Amino acid sequence: MSWWQRLRAGLKKTSDRLEQAFRFTKLDAEALEEIEDALIMSDMGVKTAQSLIQELVASKPQSAQDAKIFLKNKVTSLLQPAESVLNVCLAQPFVILMVGVNGAGKTTTIAKMAQKMKAEGLQVGFGAVDTFRMAAIEQLKVWAERTGAHFYAKEMGADPAGSAYDAYQAAIKNKDDVLFLDTAGRLQNKAQLMQEIQKIIRVIRKINPAAPHAVLLTLDATVGQNALSQVSAFKEIAEVTGLLVTKLDGTAKGGILVALTEKFHLPVYYIGVGEHADDLQPFNASDYADSLLGESDEPDTQKC
Ligand SMILES: Nc1nc2c(ncn2[C@@H]2O[C@H](COP(=O)(O)OP(=O)(O)OP(=O)(O)O)[C@@H](O)[C@H]2O)c(=O)[nH]1
Ligand SMILES: [Mg+2]
């Protein structure tokens, strides 16, 4: 399956529901209720769904197709502020601190982003800051070997902030263009682990007060509305500069990106629809709205 097909397949539950809701002959109360239900069930949030319905009514669509196009354009404009390119040329090395809850997809997303950066000719380094689990260090090491990234790690159990510091020093010495710091997954309600992120930031700022140049929060889209509380919690302890949203090929309902953008106005740099490198793609508001609403055409611009 192409990247687009995987995204379509992932969001099928939502797009099927919306397609069904748009099979009305008259935009009456029943039809509006069905569209509203489909929007709410997509995880975009009740308030957003209700205001979209109000705007839809006010636009006085002449046909179901009209109504669908109106909604597609609205969803695109709600998502537009999130469309953004991560410019890693602003510093060398450009330090990216990866944060997120357990299993969100941080480590694999690092590997996928690194693969893209390597293809652009950038030199990449990985710092193993998740020192709690041997398997985490090993996993990152394997990805470093596969992607040709430099790998920086201390022994298991080492202080995470100290590991980050050493990785940064080594990346400077090796003239890496980008340094990813892979932190351990942490529940947003575990205060001590959350504070550790602040310590990591404090320590690497001793090398450069502008670092980290990006703090990227990886979110598993299948958690739905819980993603909102994850962003709130991580934003409280670190200045999250952008989002990476994974697993949109799974049981995600997709509307969560609308809710996230409305609430936090953070860039969404990449979305993930699978486990391979090509399954991570830059976020495009219009293509995404198309797949959410079940438009059948593959976008003109090939994604891979
Ligand atoms: N289907 C699917 N699986 C994904 C995607 N991104 C990551 N995964 C899978 O999710 C699982 C967890 O990914 P990791 O990268 O290890 O997650 P992590 O956030 O580093 O996890 P911890 O280090 O334990 O906190 C792996 O099996 C990945 O292959 C995606 O976009 N789609
Ligand atoms: Mg990991």
Compact summary:
By secondary structure, the protein is an alpha/beta fold. It has helices at residues 3-10, 12-21, 29-41, 46-58, 64-79, 106-119, 134-147, 160-173, 191-204, 226-237, 256-264, 285-293; strands at residues 94-99, 124-128, 150-152, 178-182, 214-220, 242-246, 268-272, 280-282.
What does this structure look like?
- The chain has 304 residues and is α/β, with parallel strands linked by helices.
- The protein has two domains: 3-82, SRP54, nucleotide-binding domain (Four Helix Bundle (Hemerythrin (Met), subunit A), Up-down Bundle), CATH 1.20.120.140; 88-284, Rossmann fold.
- The chain is built from twelve helices and eight strands.
- α5 (64-79) runs antiparallel to α12 (285-293), α6 (106-119) packs parallel to α7 (134-147) and α8 (160-173) packs parallel to α9 (191-204).
- It is elongated.
- It binds guanosine-5'-triphosphate (GTP) and magnesium ion.
- Magnesium ion binds at residues 106-107, 130, 136, 182.
Q: Which key terms come to mind for this protein?
A:
304 residues; alpha/beta; Four Helix Bundle (Hemerythrin (Met), subunit A); Rossmann fold; 2 domains; 8-stranded mixed sheet; 12 helices; 8 strands; binds guanosine-5'-triphosphate; binds magnesium ion
Instruction: Count the domains.
Output: 2
Bound molecules: guanosine-5'-triphosphate, magnesium ion
Computed over alpha carbons, the radius of gyration is 21 Å
- Which word captures the global form? elongated
**Spatial strand sequence of the major β-sheet:** 3-2-4-1-5-6-7-8
Helix content: 40-55%
CATH architecture label name of the largest domain: 3-Layer(aba) Sandwich
Largest sheet entry: 8 strands, mixed
What proportion strand? Answer: 5-15%
Mean pLDDT: 93
How many E-type strands?
8
How many helical elements?
Answer: 12
